[in-house]
From TrEMBL:
Major site of localization recorded for this protein: membrane
BP GO terms, sorted: transmembrane transport
A Pfam family per the record: BPD_transp_1
Family stated for the protein in its record: Belongs to the binding-protein-dependent transport system permease family.
PROSITE patterns, A to Z: ABC_TM1 (PS50928)
Location of the region described as Disordered in the Swiss-Prot/TrEMBL record: 1-33
All residue ranges annotated as the ABC transmembrane type-1 domain in the record: 130-332
Subcellular location: Cell membrane
Compositionally biased intervals (Low complexity): 1-32
Descriptive protein name: ABC transporter permease
Topology versus the membrane: Multi-pass membrane protein
Length: 345
C-alpha cells in the first residue's frame, strides 16, 4: 500500500508476492532461487517441488529396476517363471488345478501363490511380465517418437504438398478403429515375419506387437509438432538462418528441433503407459505375446476363468498394472507441468 507521501509500507513493497496475481506460482523465474538458472535446471527445480511427481517417479523407477533385475530376483528368490511347480509336486494343486494352500497357494516358498492349472510361481510371472510390458512399451515409444518427429516437422516446415500428403495420411489412420485394426493386423505382421510351417521364435511377438502398436501410435505427436513447426518457421531466427544460406536440413535440426524437445518429451512420457495397456489388451484378447513368455494381459485373461474359485490370482496382476499405469500417468502430468507451469492455469 502507498502512503500519502508516496512511500511504500513493508507489507506491500514493489515486486512482493502481494502484487502478484492470485494464480501466480512461487516457482516463477522472479523467485530469487530461480534467477540465473538454465531452462533445464528450472524444470528440474519445479519437478522436485511436485511431491506427486517425485513419488510417481519413485514408483516407476521401482518397476523399471524390478524389470531390469528380474534374473537377479529369480536367483535370490529361488524360483523362476517357467517351471510348473504345481505339476511337479502333486501336493501343491488339487485335482481341479486349484492351489491347495489358502489365498491362492501363498506360502514361504511362493509369496504370491501359484498359477491355477499350470502351477507356476505368480510372483515371478509378475516380475518377468513387467519386463515384457516395458520392453514393448519403450520400443514402441521410441519408434513412434522418431516417426512422429520426422513426419510432423517435415509437414510443418516444408508445407505445401508434403504437408497435404502427411496430413491426409494422418487423417486416414486416425479414422481406423484402433482395437479392431490392431487385432486384425497382428496375424498379418506375424505371417510376414515368419514363413508358414516354421516355429515362431521367442522374439517374434515382441517385434510384431511393437510394429502393430507403432502403426497407429505416431499421429498424435506428429500433429502437435506440425502445428508448432508451422508457427516456428515464421519466426525471425528462422528467416535469419535462411538469409545466411542454411539448408532446410540444418534449419530443421539446428533451429526447429531444439525448440520442440518439451512437447516431444511430454508426449513420449504420456504415451508409454498407453502402450503398456494396449500391449496387455492384445495379450488379453489372445493376439499379443504368447506362451511361454510371461505377460500381464495374458495373466489377467487366465485369471478370469478362476474368478470365483481363486480371486487372488487376479488381484496381483490387476493391482500391479493399475499402480504402474497410474504412476506413469501422474509422472507425465508432472513432467508437463514442470516444463510449462502455465499449462494448467
Amino acid at each position: 500500500m502507498t502512503t500519502p507521501t508516496g512511500a511504500t509500507t513493508d507489507g506491500d513493497t514493489p515486486g512482493s508476492t502481494s502484487d502478484l496475481p492470485d494464480n501466480a506460482s512461487a516457482d516463477a523465474p522472479a523467485d530469487p532461487g530461480f534467477r540465473g538458472l538454465s531452462p533445464g535446471k528450472l524444470m528440474w527445480r519445479r519437478f522436485l517441488r511436485d511431491r506427486t511427481g517425485v513419488v510417481s517417479a519413485c514408483v516407476v523407477l521401482f518397476f523399471v529396476l524390478v524389470a531390469v533385475l528380474a534374473p537377479v530376483i529369480s536367483m535370490l528368490y529361488g524360483n523362476d517363471a517357467e517351471t510348473h511347480y504345481g505339476q511337479n509336486d502333486p501336493t501343491l494343486l488339487t485335482d481341479s488345478g486349484l492351489p491347495v494352500a489358502p489365498n491362492g497357494g501363498m506360502s514361504g516358498d511362493f509369496w504370491f501363490g501359484l498359477e491355477p492349472g499350470l502351477g507356476r510361481d505368480v510372483m515371478m510371472q509378475l516380475v518377468y511380465g513387467i519386463r515384457t510390458s516395458l520392453i514393448i512399451a519403450f520400443a514402441t515409444s521410441l519408434l513412434t517418437t522418431v516417426i512422429g518427429v520426422a513426419l510432423g516437422i517435415a509437414a510443418g516446415y516444408l508445407g505445401g504438398k508434403a504437408d497435404f500428403f502427411i496430413g491426409r495420411v494422418i487423417d486416414v489412420l486416425m479414422s481406423f478403429p484402433s482395437q479392431i485394426f490392431l487385432i486384425a493386423t497382428m496375424p498379418v505382421v506375424t505371417s510376414l515375419l515368419v514363413p508358414s510351417g516354421q516355429k515362431v521364435p521367442t522374439w517374434l511377438p515382441f517385434v510384431a506387437v511393437t510394429i502393430v502398436l507403432s502403426l497407429l501410435g505416431w499421429m498424435g505427436l506428429a500433429r502437435i509438432l506440425r502445428g508448432t513447426a508451422l508457427a516456428l518457421r515464421e519466426r525471425e531466427f528462422i528467416e535469419a538462418a535462411k538469409v545466411t544460406g542454411a539448408s532446410p536440413m540444418r534449419i530443421i535440426f539446428k533451429e526447429i528441433l531444439p525448440n520442440l524437445w518439451t512437447p516431444i518429451l511430454v508426449q513420449a512420457t504420456l504415451a508409454l503407459p498407453a502402450f503398456v495397456t494396449a500391449e496387455a489388451g492384445l495379450s488379453y484378447l489372445g493376439v499379443g505375446v504368447s506362451e511361454p513368455v510371461p505377460d500381464w494381459g495374458r495373466m489377467i485373461a487366465g485369471a478370469a476363468d478362476y474368478l470365483r474359485t481363486d480371486v487372488t490370482y487376479l488381484l496381483f496382476p490387476g493391482i500391479a498394472m493399475v499402480i504402474f499405469v497410474l504412476a506413469f500417468n501422474l509422472l507425465g502430468d508432472s513432467v508437463r507441468d514442470a516444463f510449462d507451469p502455465k499449462a494448467n492455469r
